[in-house]
Amino acid sequence: MELSSFTWAYYDQLLSELEKPQYLVLNVSGFILLSEKGELPLDKVIVILRHDVDYSPNSSMEISRMENEHNITSTYYIRARGSYDPLSPDIFKWIKWLNQNGFEVGLHHEDLYITNYNFTEAVKLFKIDLQLLRGISRVITVCAHGNVAKPKHVNHEIFTRNYTTLEENSLAGEADLTVAKYVKQLELRMENLSDSGGKWQPFLEVLTNAAAREVIYFLIHPEWWHK
């Protein structure tokens, strides 16, 4: 029987399930790099585990601690221009800890929105933000933040308009665009489960019913989760 939604107890139960041998849990760059090399094991259920740290670094710290206890690593996308400062002592220390313990740290960029959809200025700001985060941790993937429900342009359009922007900045890929590209190339079935907007998803139910050659892409926003 599933525990109550959005509790750390439920998330702990999900992590316990992910420790079973039929699953391969990958961070975003892990999936991209294995796919690129043709080394993705297709005899397992592939789980991509990602967190967008939109508003709550404290909840993110707790979730990462839980994952570490289960020997599971994931991706944490950090905002450079959001409601928290990645250079503040506690967050800086946590990002360092993530990097040292096998987690992936990525940039949760929003520069297209910040520049009022000026693509040239957005790319300039993106490079500044990427450099800032790389001053704390290794960063090889990025992910667009959704600032508003119906934006004029989506933040990741700085790549769809010029995909070489990723390569020019020594990035392995973008969390949505590049993952989707390899899922299509490898002819895999992918199930996206995101709690965006506080919408509950049947995470455990989908996971336990998945089969080999399936990709389960979990997007967990820590701000919704609690004791």
Q: What do these coordinates show?
A:
The protein is an alpha/beta fold and 227 residues long. The protein has one domain: Glycoside hydrolase/deacetylase (TIM Barrel), CATH 3.20.20. Helices cover 40% and strands 19% of the residues. Strands 1, 2, 3, 4, 5, 6, 7 and 8 form an eight-stranded parallel sheet that branches. Strand 1, helix 2 and strand 2 form a beta-alpha-beta unit. The two termini are 18 Å apart.
Number of domains: 1
| Overall pLDDT level | 96
- According to DSSP, the number of beta strands is 8
Radius of gyration from the alpha-carbon trace, in angstroms: 17 Å
Taken as a percent bin, the fraction of beta residues is: 15-25%
**Shape type:** globular
Uncertain residue segments: none
If you consult CATH, what is the topology?
Answer: TIM Barrel
Distance separating the two termini: 18 Å
CATH top level is Alpha Beta
Which range best describes the helical content: under 10%, 10-25%, 25-40%, 40-55%, 55-70% or over 70%? Answer: 25-40%
**Structural class of the secondary elements?**
alpha/beta
CATH architecture: Alpha-Beta Barrel
| SSE string, helices as H and strands as E | HEHEHEHEHHEHHEHEHE
**CATH-level-4 superfamily name:** Glycoside hydrolase/deacetylase
Q: How many strands, which pairing sense, and closed or not: the largest β-sheet?
A: 8 strands, parallel
Number of H- or I-type helical stretches? 10
